[in-house]
Hints:
The complex is a heterodimer. Chain A is mainly α. Chain A folds into 2 domains: 76 residues, no CATH class; 74 residues, no CATH class. Chain A contains 8 helices and 2 strands. Chain A has a two-stranded antiparallel sheet. In chain A, a hairpin with a 5-residue loop joins strand 1 and strand 2. By secondary structure, chain B is an alpha+beta fold. Chain B has a domain of 108 residues. Chain B is built from 3 helices and 14 strands. The longest helix of chain B is centred in the first third of the chain and has 19 residues. The N terminus of chain B is likely disordered. The chains are: A mainly alpha, B alpha+beta. At the A-B interface, helix 1, helix 2, strand 1, helix 3 and helix 4 of A face strand 10 and strand 14 of B. Strand 1 of chain A pairs antiparallel with strand 14 of chain B.
Amino acid sequence: MRPWHDKANAEFVTLVDSENILGNLFNLKAIPYGIMIDEAGRLVKSPFSINVAKKETLTMLEKWLTDPAYNATLLGNVKPASKSLNPKVIEANARFQLGLTLLEIGKKAEAMTEWRKALALDLKNWIIHKQIWAVENPDKFYDGNVDYGWQKAQLEAEKEE
Amino acid sequence: MTKLILTTCVILSLAAGLHASPVSNLKVSIDSKLVAFSTSPIFKNGTWLVPIETLGKQLGLKVEMPDGEEMVVICGSGESELCVPLQLGEDAFSIDNVTYSKLEDLTEPFGFEIYKTTETEVEIVRSEQLAPKFTLPDLDDTPKRMQDFRGKKTLLYIWGSW
């Protein structure tokens, strides 16, 4: 994470979530996601698909920072994310966590097996999907630039399978 | 004899202090709405004492004063069946026929959190409104808690390098 943080001259705090703690807490299936929390620690806006390059996103965030009434409006509309009770999703999360632990102790093949089982249980989970790709093809992810063209081609290939 | 005199003095001092120092400028909000107190909260020994009946009602708590008992019993409502006894003279104080307790004793056992906007403005936050708590390391491996960001609006932007 450090190279991206430094390259952006970031003044914000960057936290490292190597165990997918936030994914589990907020039941996330993909990233990037934004979560807005006010001064009192209240969830103001549940996880939402965020693109900070979009003008409307920045306008909304600026309004939130400057207009206390808007914070109250958002608070009134918020629906806290509920953790999934779907047994398949629960098992997928458990297998994903197990895979992370196995990878950490050097058991890459066993980790991949767990993640593939996890993905089969939660097919739309892009966090699991990309984790598999990144460990199988580190050159497409960790050589300075992420190869999104490769990801697109890979996705097409997998669809055909 | 000396011990008896000293003990008596301390108790009198507390009682006199409670009468002498009413502070009327504590603002308490729940769900962004200001609580209207008919009797003002009191600041004593570094803590706020609030009228139990008024605030308890606003928080949806049941307040009972069992006959013949020197205590106030506060009970949660809904799913919370927790009842907390507050001993009169120790945890709760009767002043001019109004019973007060510490703000924390009326909120924290029932899952509410207190957010201090200023020294005289507090917001009572319901636990179900709070963002989930977590701790994660920063880039220097220093653990950071979500609560460490209280007092600032925080955008949690979750992303991955892939």
